[in-house]
Amino acid sequence: MSAPTSPADLYRHSLRLLLDKDIPAWVALWAEDGVIQFPFAPDGWPRRLEGKEAIAAYMRHYPDHIDLHDFPDLRIHQTTDPQTIVVEMRGVGRLVESDAPFDMTYIAVVTVQEGHITSYRDYWNPLAVQEPGTDFTGSSR
What we know:
It contains four helices and seven strands. The protein is α+β, with helices and mostly antiparallel strands. It starts with 6 loop residues before the first helix and ends in a 17-residue tail after the last strand.
């Protein structure tokens, strides 16, 4: 089976990889010069990552801190740009360190070109990272 190339299919595939904790395969979905932005990131957390290498470093230890179980309430909206989608979803699971429940709501604006993610603006709730065990980024909080 070939890799999905439509933005919606590629995004759904990316969520499956996160649930499978296959971070290298998730990173492989990114363009070399891909950019991820976190407009609501609190102080001490990255607001922008440029390039696949920076994205890989950011995500490397994600499964050691957050054990994702599902992405319920997934809604993918097409935009007037066929390469860009807007995604509404929840990520649920548990925090590995404390075994506390993890439940975060996200809105993302994602652009895909030539079968790779080139831009991802992730509007997540910064209040959720006040829980112990959520800092997988190596930030200096």
